[in-house]
Amino acid sequence: MKDKILYYFYRCFFGALARLPLSCLFVISDGLCWLMIHVLHYRRRVIRKNLLRVFPDRSDAERLAIEVAFYHHLCDLIFEIIKLLHISDEEMASRVEAEGIELVDECARQGVPCFVLFGHNGNWEWAEQMYKYCTEPNTFCQVYRPLRDKAFDDLILHLRKRFDSISIPQKQVLRTVLRLRHEGKPFLVAFNSDQHPNSDVMDHWTTFLGQDSAYITGAEEIGRKIGARFLFMDFAQPRRGHYRITVRRIEPAEGEQFPYTISYLRMLEKSILRQPELWLWSHNRWYISREEYNAQQAKTSNPRLAGD
What we know:
By secondary structure, the chain is an alpha/beta fold. About 50% of the residues lie in helices and about 15% in strands. It has a domain at about 95-300.
C-alpha cells in the first residue's frame, strides 16, 4: 500500500511538472544545477576524482568546465525524463533525430536478433525514440536493473511504455531472449552496458578511458547463443534539449576473448571524449582496482589468508 501511494504521488507531482514546456523546465533545471554545485555538492568528490583520472593532462580550469557542464546536463536529463509523462510524439520527433536505423531494419528483414549496446551517455531514456523510426516490424526490448525504490521503479517503467517496448529485468534476460528466439519473431534488445559488473563477476578487464576497468560480458555471451548481430548506439547533443542518435555496426576486435564488447567500449570511448559532459561522471565506476579485486578473491578462496 505504501508503494502504491508513493507511486501515485510521483505520478501526480511529476505529471504536473511535465505539463510545463521544456523551456520552463530548463529554467527550473538551472536552479537545481546551482543547488547541486554550490549547496548540495552532489557527488562532487566522485566526479572530480573521475575527471582527474581520465583527464590528468588538462588544467584545473578545463576539468572544472567539464564538471559544470556535466551538472547542467544531469539536471536537464532529470527534467527531460520527467517530460516523458506529457510530451507529444511530434515534439519527441523534433528533438531526437536518428541515423543508421536501416541497420536495425536489415536485421528484422533477415530475421536476425539485434543487440544494441550503448552507455549512460546523452539521454538514454529518450533513446527509445529510435524505435519510432524503424520501418520493419520488430519487438523492442531493453534490459534494466530494478531500482530499490519500488514506487519510482514503477514510474520509470510507466515512462518507457510510451515507446511500446518491453522492459526485461537483468536477471531474466537469458530466459526472455531464448523465448523470443523460439517464437521466431524479429526482436531488438538494448543493453545499457558501460558500468562496472557485479562485484562477484569482475573477471574481465581492459583499458577504458585510460583506466584499468572491469567490463560486462553478458550481452555478448547471450548474443553468441542466439546468433545476434551487435550494433552501437552513439549519442551527440547538437543543442540543449536535442539529441542525435547514430546506430553503427560493431566490428569485432581481433584477438579478443569478447571481440564485440571490446570494440563497443572503444566506440563508446570516442563518443565520451567528443562530448565528455554527456557521460555519467557521478558514478563511482573505478571503485576497485584489478589488484585489489584479485587480492579479495584470493582471500575468499583461501581461508587462511581471509583470517589474517
